[in-house]
Amino acid sequence: MKKNILNWNVIALVGLVIGFSSCGEETSAEKETAIVEESDEDTSFLDIPELDPDMAYSVPTPNELFAVIKETGVAYDGSILNSTDNREKYSSKKMQALNFGVYFADLAFASSFQENASILSYFGAIKVLSDELGISNALDAAIYEKVEVSLQNEDSDSLSFLSNDTYFQAYSYLEENERGSTLALIVLGGWIESLYIMTNLGEYEAGSNLVARIGEQKLTVGNLMGFMMKYQDDSNVLEVMEELADIEELFWSFEEVEGEKVETAQEGDVYVLSGGSTIIVSAEQYEKLKELVSELRNEIIEGEL
Amino acid sequence: MKRLFANLFLVALVLAPSALISQNCRGVVKYCDHAKRDGFLRNGQSLSGAFVQGDTAEVTIIVYKDMEYRISLCSETHRELNGKFEFKMVEKITKPAWEEVTTFEMEQKYDDYGELIGEEKIEKTARKRVYKKVDVVRYDNKKDEDAQEFIFISDKTRKLTIQVFIPAPEGAVESQGLGAETYACVGLLIEHQPSLVLGFNR
Predict the structure, then answer these.
(1) Which residue, among A201, A187, A212, has the nearest Cα to A281 in the 3D structure?
(2) Which residue from A17, A22, A160 is facing B8, i.e. has the nearest CB?
């Protein structure tokens, strides 16, 4: 099967032409050799996915995640979110992008639970950071009026829609304007904050819905790394990927237990996918994850990364 | 060196139109029909891009338990493709299997007096339980009357790969080389909404 993404063809063709040119010249053959540092550490017990450079990897949005988290029966806790007062600490583009993602996750969490006061406050912080990042054009100019109207009408569906659509618009704008590295930092900031919120919503309880949702982030971390790989030539992206390494490795140690037979059934116009494996998280892994995520998240919100 | 620059210039000439297409294709997913009236929200995992007609593109997404998803495709630049996309949804599933492993051992041979006379290579076969990742096709629109939208829910959070075949232009001849390839801007729209009733009873 042929897989194609235009950019890969472009790179291959440039490589080919440079190759032909070199053949015609009498130059000393200076071969570039990729140096891969080998670690003595045994990683054979880790379930590390293969990342295909030709594949596009997508990462779910915080809005989608918190809509699911709300159904686990957890209660809203605004005290664990990043204070909008911290916004002034973010002077570099790197910290602005990371915390843009953090505030979006906080907004998604507040929107899911219809916490009106927080919603307006986080929309405000996002607006200021979008100006500083030069992406305010991406956002609907009338977004704040729409949010206020929705808040007055206590229209939670509309608030969820506005929160989700604002993220979608910012995401599309950055993609269209080839600012993938900024996008990568935003996505990472949003994911770390989401993970921080989840791990601070309750204590470890084997088999609970919340712990199951946290364990499932093992699937997302693979896609997140696959997505960020595209932009790792950017030093800011590479730095945060390095910071993420311990968390990534911890996820790979989560056990996957085979479940019932996989089936796809049709019910009316909707298909139902069932079966497959379940990810298991131990109490020790949960506590370790909580610690690692908290460490990285605090560096991000304090503007110290 | 002159040759290198000359060749790079030629490459630039060849690539300029395709690079332009690539850039212009960004964000085309916003032209796809959005099922807002049915309660769906546009999902950030949607994708836009320039793709070679006649080839297959792949994207890996995460779908959550208790969430309903809608997948659809569109092309703003090549509207004749709309309604003709072929796509599959594939999941990597771990399946158990038995594997036969053959090993060789050297066995010492003795004569009737107990004297060592040499070694013999003995073949031994053992069965081992192994777990392999295999691709399972969860949905194929060709088996669903070429449906151009796919709505589904899942009982678990999963990683799925969407394979999209971009139809070739009519009358196109295969293997004409890169210069003969035509590109189409394609948007893969993913939408989501909390499933109406948990437990899959709609």
Answers:
(1) A212
(2) A17
Q: Are A100 and A186 in contact (CB under 8 A)?
A: yes
Q: Judge: B58–A56 Cβ closer than 8 Å, yes or no.
A: yes
Nearest chain B residue (CA) to A27: B1
Per the CB < 8 Å rule, is A270 touching B153? yes
Residues 87-116 of B with CB under 8 A from A: 91, 93-94, 96
- Is the CB of B153 less than 8 angstroms away from the CB of A271? yes
pLDDT, mean of residues A14-28? 38
Residue A21 and residue B7: Cβ atoms within 8 Å? yes
> Is residue A72 a contact partner of residue A209, using CB atoms and an 8 Å limit?
yes
Q: Which residues in chain A touch residue B26, judged by CB atoms under 8 angstroms apart? A: 175-178
Does B71 score more than 90 pLDDT?
Answer: yes
- Strands A56-57 and B56-63, by their bridges, are parallel
**Residues 6 or more apart in contact with residue A110 via CB below 8 angstroms:** A76, A78, A81, A118, A119, A122
What is the pLDDT at residue A141?
Answer: 72
Q: Residue A156's pLDDT band (boundaries 50, 70, 90)?
A: confident
The answer for A184, left when phi > 0, alpha when psi is -120 to 50, beta otherwise, is alpha
Give A89-99 pLDDT, tens digit per residue: 999 999 999 99
Asked if the interface predicted TM-score (ipTM) of this complex is over 0.90, the answer is no
Tens of pLDDT, residues B117-167: 999 889 988 888 877 888 999 999 999 999 999 999 999 999 999 999 998
pLDDT above 90 for B18: no
Contact between chains at A67 and B200 (C-beta distance less than 8 A): no
